[in-house]
Specification:
single chain; 102 residues; mainly beta; PH-domain like
Protein backbone atom coordinates (compact mmCIF):
# COMPACT_ATOMS: atom_id res chain seq x y z
CA UNK A 1 0.00 0.00 0.00
CA UNK A 2 1.43 3.36 -1.02
CA UNK A 3 1.24 6.22 1.42
CA UNK A 4 -0.60 9.30 0.24
CA UNK A 5 1.10 12.64 0.92
CA UNK A 6 -0.61 15.21 3.12
CA UNK A 7 0.37 17.81 0.52
CA UNK A 8 2.33 17.73 -2.73
CA UNK A 9 3.25 20.28 -5.39
CA UNK A 10 5.75 21.27 -8.03
CA UNK A 11 8.43 23.55 -6.57
CA UNK A 12 11.94 24.88 -6.93
CA UNK A 13 14.59 23.90 -4.39
CA UNK A 14 17.55 26.16 -3.71
CA UNK A 15 20.56 25.04 -1.69
CA UNK A 16 23.32 27.63 -1.71
CA UNK A 17 23.79 28.79 -5.29
CA UNK A 18 22.22 25.66 -6.85
CA UNK A 19 18.57 25.43 -7.91
CA UNK A 20 16.47 22.53 -9.15
CA UNK A 21 12.85 22.10 -10.20
CA UNK A 22 10.91 19.10 -8.97
CA UNK A 23 8.17 17.95 -6.61
CA UNK A 24 7.91 18.36 -2.85
CA UNK A 25 5.64 16.09 -0.82
CA UNK A 26 4.84 16.14 2.87
CA UNK A 27 4.02 12.88 4.61
CA UNK A 28 3.28 12.25 8.30
CA UNK A 29 6.94 11.56 9.09
CA UNK A 30 8.97 13.10 6.28
CA UNK A 31 9.38 15.77 3.65
CA UNK A 32 10.32 14.24 0.32
CA UNK A 33 11.96 16.13 -2.56
CA UNK A 34 12.10 14.53 -6.01
CA UNK A 35 13.99 16.58 -8.65
CA UNK A 36 12.95 16.46 -12.29
CA UNK A 37 16.61 16.10 -13.30
CA UNK A 38 18.09 13.38 -11.09
CA UNK A 39 21.52 13.74 -12.74
CA UNK A 40 21.92 17.31 -11.48
CA UNK A 41 22.75 16.28 -7.89
CA UNK A 42 20.04 18.03 -5.86
CA UNK A 43 18.10 15.08 -4.55
CA UNK A 44 16.09 13.12 -4.09
CA UNK A 45 15.97 13.99 -0.38
CA UNK A 46 14.06 12.36 2.46
CA UNK A 47 13.97 14.77 5.39
CA UNK A 48 12.57 13.45 8.66
CA UNK A 49 9.98 15.85 10.06
CA UNK A 50 11.35 15.21 13.56
CA UNK A 51 14.67 16.74 12.38
CA UNK A 52 13.01 20.03 11.36
CA UNK A 53 13.92 22.71 13.89
CA UNK A 54 12.24 25.66 12.17
CA UNK A 55 10.15 26.54 9.17
CA UNK A 56 9.41 30.09 8.05
CA UNK A 57 8.36 32.10 5.05
CA UNK A 58 11.25 33.81 3.31
CA UNK A 59 11.42 37.52 4.10
CA UNK A 60 13.26 39.68 1.56
CA UNK A 61 12.39 42.89 3.38
CA UNK A 62 13.46 44.08 6.80
CA UNK A 63 12.17 43.10 10.25
CA UNK A 64 10.35 46.44 10.38
CA UNK A 65 8.85 46.06 6.88
CA UNK A 66 8.69 42.38 5.99
CA UNK A 67 8.13 41.44 2.35
CA UNK A 68 7.35 37.77 2.06
CA UNK A 69 7.97 35.76 -1.08
CA UNK A 70 6.29 32.55 -2.15
CA UNK A 71 9.15 30.63 -0.60
CA UNK A 72 9.82 29.00 2.73
CA UNK A 73 12.96 28.00 4.58
CA UNK A 74 13.27 24.62 6.23
CA UNK A 75 16.07 24.31 8.81
CA UNK A 76 17.16 20.93 10.15
CA UNK A 77 18.82 20.07 13.45
CA UNK A 78 22.19 19.75 11.63
CA UNK A 79 21.79 23.41 10.45
CA UNK A 80 21.15 22.44 6.82
CA UNK A 81 18.75 24.89 5.16
CA UNK A 82 16.45 24.04 2.28
CA UNK A 83 14.63 26.85 0.45
CA UNK A 84 11.51 25.84 -1.46
CA UNK A 85 9.68 28.23 -3.80
CA UNK A 86 6.09 27.32 -4.61
CA UNK A 87 2.55 28.70 -4.62
CA UNK A 88 0.77 29.29 -1.32
CA UNK A 89 3.91 28.99 0.79
CA UNK A 90 2.07 30.10 3.92
CA UNK A 91 -0.12 26.97 3.91
CA UNK A 92 3.03 24.81 3.61
CA UNK A 93 4.62 26.63 6.55
CA UNK A 94 1.47 26.12 8.64
CA UNK A 95 1.34 22.41 7.84
CA UNK A 96 5.02 21.87 8.64
CA UNK A 97 4.87 24.04 11.77
CA UNK A 98 1.97 21.96 13.12
CA UNK A 99 4.48 19.12 13.52
CA UNK A 100 6.52 21.26 15.95
CA UNK A 101 3.70 21.23 18.50
CA UNK A 102 3.53 17.43 18.66
Amino acid sequence: MLLQPLKSSFATLQRGASRSDGRISIFDNEVYWEPHNKDFGLGPYRLARQDVTSVSRKNIGTPEKPVYTEAFLLRLNNDDIYEFTLCESESWVNLLASNDAE
